[in-house]
Amino acid sequence: MPSAAVPSAAHESLLSATRRHTTSLARALVTPTYPATPLLARSSRRWLRRLPYAVAGLLTIILLPVTAQLLTNDYGLNGGLATMLAAAQTGPLLLAVTRPLPAWWIAFIADTVGALAVLGYADLPERSWPWQPPNIIGCLFLLLFLALREPRRTLVAVWLVTGGVGVVLGIPGARYSDGTNVLMFVLGGVVLLVGGALRERGDAQRRLAEQETISEAERARRTLLEERARIARELHDVVAHHMSVITVQADSAPYRIGGLPPEAEREFGTIAATARESLAEMRRLLGVLRSEDARGERAPQPGLDRVPQLVEATVRAGIPTTLSIAKDVAALGTLPQAVDLSAYRIVQEALANVVRHAPGAPTNVSILTSADRTGLTVLVVNGPPSGTPGPPLETTGTGHGLIGMRERVRLVGGTLDTGPLPEGGFRLAARLPLVEVAESTNNTDDSPAGDGPAGNGPAGNGPEHDGPAHAESTDGAERYPLAP
Questions:
Q1: The model's pTM
Q2: InterPro entries of this UniProt entry (predicted)?
Q3: What is the extent of the structural domain holding 159?
């Protein structure tokens, strides 16, 4: 008994699966998957978008009179009936550009009616039956349009219906059939297979392009977050220093200033405790921002006093570089640490981009103050190469440099202007305010000009330096001797 129950269950499962697949195929035959948009509508080329209309129109103009004349002269149909059948068989080609599944239904039903209409013709054994040559050509193009739009399940259902109707028509007219039903079945399968493969390949390419676009956006977002985290880690030392000074001053105030009332001593103690608590919170935040393999910085944060070392290293890398620092900058005294650090990092990234993207291009670094001494301007300009152009170390930039510079400038409430020069080369100007701002504003230039001063500048090999390089003295700028 148990052995007999197993085949019964398997038999029922097979019937259920067959019923389910049959229902699915029948539903696919009457449900267009894609919206009524023209074929190749997404193509960027105008002639490709018009190609389906041109093919459908040309086929209709050719097949309509040929089919009507064939049905009238070779199959003995009435002229009016032949014209109506020819219009129903070939007219759907124009509809197939936007709605291929309904167009196939109309044409296929018309082909079947035409095959039945000529079934009793006396000379039918000498003619093609059940499908005439114009019907085969028009149907194959309809199947191609259908394969370029509909999914695989619909194509399988259409192929089976085409073959099934051909077999059914061959039963009553077996003595008339010349094998065109088999030919239609085979050629239709080939066309559906090739068209479906092309459609799936196009869909895969579109999905890949969408994923690449999403990946590029995510990469840009991740780069921005990484730059912000890096800036936050660097500024931690700056802020932590000020908080430490506040703590020490508040703790030592009762001992440095005699005769303080108890209320003042308690107030200084509260200030010191609040500063310690803020410093601890900042260290915890830094622990979140710092990656697992990152180590704490032990060296002091760099500033403008180390810019000459950057220029000297750039000269040793083969870039003819000059540095000019206005005397007014030294007269400003101690700069705000955030501005001092940002100015150094901007010059560092700009010179690194010159080395990567425009080797040998002469470069000038200028650090100036505004007329009212409320702002600091960092100007880095690389000109066109003066020697034989050579290949850059990198042909495409990641954009990390400009992202980092924009974030630093935005942090201190300044502006960043970048762009190529008319005569060749690249210019970068960062303006950093020296006074506190209530709210940072982002007025940076969003010009997609690569990674930095040499993003779109020419690449070439500049002249070699036989003697020591030095900074030119302009407008009272201080001169810095540099090693070759």
A1: 0.49
A2: HATPase_C_sf, HATPase_dom, Sensor_HK_TwoCompSys, Sig_transdc_His_kin_sub3_dim/P
A3: 22-178
